[in-house]
């Protein structure tokens, strides 16, 4: 359904539609039983259409917009409050009262929601925020302390590096000194080896000369030593023989002494028998 309104009288034109000579309002029923409203070929909401009618004092929901012939007596017999309400509806001011009432209800609902939100803020969110702020402060303090620790660790590492580098330089210097000392010692050792070789050579020469000089005397002494060794061996052999003879005689003497003791015992026994 489409309704076209003449809007050539700009003085009575709805606010915002002065540039349009015609106002076209369309209602369509689409699939699913839903309504679709078009205002000058643009999709709009139903309340926007109602607001347009209200702005020109046209309320399609107003039962007093048109007074039927049979309702005139009823209108005349209305109470002042009812008459005022009818006039307000006919004049279109009731629309604003309804909007005011709706706005007040909305404000009340919003206020209740605000109170709930304030209660939620004071009882749950604010303590949580305070806790989070404390945790954030603790975290920031931890971050600051951690950064300070890292800075001090870097400083300590740099200090240790400098100390190690200094010790390394000292060790390198000591190593160079030791290498120089080692070279000197190697030179001294080589000189000593040369001197030792010379001394050994000289010793060999002297030993050879001494052996040559003492060769004859040594041969003579060896001959005498051989002769004396033979005599000593002969004497030792004789001594061993004599010792064997002496040992045999001592054993014989022991046997004789034992026999003599036996004879003495026998003699004593016979003497005792003779006295009896």
Summary?
With 276 residues, this protein is α+β, with helices and mostly antiparallel strands.
What does this structure look like?
The chain has 276 residues and is an alpha+beta fold. The protein is built from four helices and four strands; from the N terminus they run E-E-E-E-H-H-H-H. It has helices at 46-55, 72-76, 80-91, 94-275, and strands at 2-6, 22-29, 35-39, 42-44. A four-stranded antiparallel sheet has the order 1-2-3-4. A hairpin with a 2-residue loop joins strand 3 and strand 4. The longest helix has 182 residues, at 94-275. The N and C termini lie far apart (193 Å).
List the helices and strands and how they pair.
Blueprint: E1 2-6, E2 22-29, E3 35-39, E4 42-44, H1 46-55, H2 72-76, H3 80-91, H4 94-275
Antiparallel strand pairs: 1-2, 2-3, 3-4
Q: What general form does the structure show? A: elongated
Major β-sheet annotation: 4 strands, antiparallel
- What's the N-to-C terminus distance? 193 Å
**Unreliable parts:** none
Measured by DSSP, the beta-strand proportion falls in 5-15%
As a percent range, the share of helical residues equals: over 70%
- What letter string, H or E per element, gives the SSE order? EEEEHHHH
Q: What is the arithmetic mean of pLDDT?
A: 80
User: How are the strands of the largest sheet arranged?
Assistant: 1-2-3-4
What is the count of β-strands?
4
State the secondary-structure class.
alpha+beta
Number of helices: 4
Taking all Cα atoms into account, the compactness measure Rg is 74 Å
């Amino acid at each position: 359904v489409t309704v076209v309104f003449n809007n050539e009288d700009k003085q009575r034109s709805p606010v915002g539609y002065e540039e349009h000579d015609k106002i076209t309002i369309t209602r369509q029923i689409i699939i699913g039983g839903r309504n679709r409203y078009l205002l000058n070929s643009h999709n709009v909401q139903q309340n926007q259409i109602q607001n347009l009618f209200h702005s020109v004092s046209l309320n399609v929901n107003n039962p007093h917009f048109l007074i039927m012939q049979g309702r005139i007596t009823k209108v005349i017999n209305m109470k002042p409050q009812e008459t005022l309400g009818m006039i307000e509806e006919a004049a279109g001011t009731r629309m604003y009262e309804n909007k005011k009432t709706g706005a007040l209800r909305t404000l009340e609902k919003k206020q209740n929601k605000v109170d709930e939100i304030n209660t939620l803020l004071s009882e749950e969110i604010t303590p949580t925020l305070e806790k989070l702020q404390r945790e954030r402060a603790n975290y920031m303090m931890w971050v600051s302390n951690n950064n300070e620790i890292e800075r001090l660790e870097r400083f300590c590492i740099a200090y240790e590096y400098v100390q190690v580098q200094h010790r390394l330089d000292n060790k390198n210097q000591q190593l160079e000194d030791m290498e120089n000392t080692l070279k000197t010692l190697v030179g001294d050792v080589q000189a000593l080896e040369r001197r030792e070789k010379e001394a050994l050579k000289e010793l060999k020469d002297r030993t050879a000369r001494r052996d040559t000089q003492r060769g004859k005397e040594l041969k003579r002494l060896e001959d005498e030593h051989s002769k004396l060794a033979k005599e000593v061996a002969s004497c030792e052999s004789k001594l061993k023989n004599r010792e064997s003879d002496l040992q045999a005689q001592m054993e014989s003497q022991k046997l004789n002494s034992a026999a003599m003791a036996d004879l003495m015992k026998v003699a004593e026994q016979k003497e005792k028998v003779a006295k009896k």
